[in-house]
Structures are given as structure tokens and as C-alpha cells.
Model the fold of this input.
Amino acid sequence: MTINKQKEGTSLTLALEGRLDTITAPELEAVLKEELEDVEALTFDFTALEYISSAGLRVLLSAQKQMNRQGTMKVTGVGEVIMEIFEVTGFSDILTIE
Amino acid sequence: MQAITVKAEVAALDRVTDFVNEVLEALGCPMKTLMQIDLAVEEIFVNIASYAYGPEGGDAVIRVSAADGGVRVAFEDRGIPFDPTAREDPDRTAGAEERPIGGLGIFLTKKLMDAVAYEYRNGMNILTIEKKTGTG
Done:
């Protein structure tokens, strides 16, 4: 998985490419831990994300919990396969998907 | 039927996924179904890698075969008896704050597969998933 970071002031966009699974989820977790402290608007761009497992969902949920306290979070570019995972798990109600 | 034996550890996940994908592609499994099976395979294998054995570790066997109108993947380990299908489903309507982090893996597996069955036989945990592929 590749993580492309783009930070402007208090806005952070993370564009993910590849697979967000048990092996790669810790990489995203580490980036969030490092970058999220003063962020008020977090955007995940999933246009090039092919796959997500529950390990990835866990990282998204903990990011959402943190952003509920300090700003906003949204997910963009969600494809059909990943949207189904969000819907089946009820994550489509928790996340702001655009 | 094709099978692979790996050490039951998370580091072997890519090998397991590659093996399963190779067999499924040869069976003409559509891409979307393949992704769903990948997900179930990851959840089950990571579960085995995390909980089946103690510090001494052990092996897991993954068997992939064509089933009636679909595919079947079976996971075998000789770890402690554990039936993941007996776990209660998480509350899908809970908001972000009330949600526990975790517990979604086996739920997703049950939702995305057509059948998930567990049995303990001859000292082995055997978890079998089936998914219709519409390819015959």
C-alpha cells in the first residue's frame, strides 16, 4: 500500500493506493499518529484503494473517534467493493462518504 | 482440490492470499467475488495466526476447491478448539463512540460468504467457507 500525504494548514488528505489489510494497516496507523495532532479536516481519498479488511476498518474507526473530538473527517472516491464492506458493517452510517 | 501448508503467523498472510487468488483465478472466479473471498480468508487466517497456538506456534492448512456452483475454502489448524462462528454479531447500528474497536472480522465473513461452517474433528479446527460464483 502507498500513502500519499498532502497537508495544507490544518487540512490533511491521505490518498491510499493498494490494499489496506492486516499487514498494511499499521503503516496507516503510524502516519495518523504522527500527523493527526493539529488536524481539523481529515480526508481519506480511496480512489486507488482496491481492498479493505477489518484491520483497515479498525484504523478508520479510531481516526473517526479522534476527529469527532477535534474536527471533521470524510472519505472520498469509494468504489463498489469497498462501499459494500462499509454498508454490511454499518460503517456507511458512521463515516461521512462523499 | 489444491492445498497449502503455512506457519500460522500473520507474516504468512500474503502467501496464503496469493495462493488462494491463483486457484480462484484459474477457476474463473469474478473479481468482485475474489475480493470478498480474500477478505474472508484474511479474517479467518489472521484469527488462526493470532489465537490458535501458544508461543510454540504451529501450522495451518488451507484447501481450495470448486464446489457446486462456486468455491470452497477450508482452514485447518491443530490449535486450541475454537468456534469463531459462535461469536455474537456486533451491533451494526452503534455510533462511532459506542463501537468497540474490533469484532468485525467473522461478522464480515458470515455476511459476505454463502456458508460458513465449523467443526472440530481429529484434534483439528476445521472452518469451511463457501461462495457461489455463478461460473458453474
Remarks:
- The interface with chain B takes residues 21-23, 50-51, 53-55, 57-58, 61-62, 64-65, 68, 80-81, 84-85, 88-90, 93-94 of chain A (CB under 8 Å).
- The CA atoms of residues 20 and 56 of chain A lie 5 Å apart.
- The domain at 2-94 of chain A is CATH 3.30.750.24 (Transcription Regulator spoIIAA).
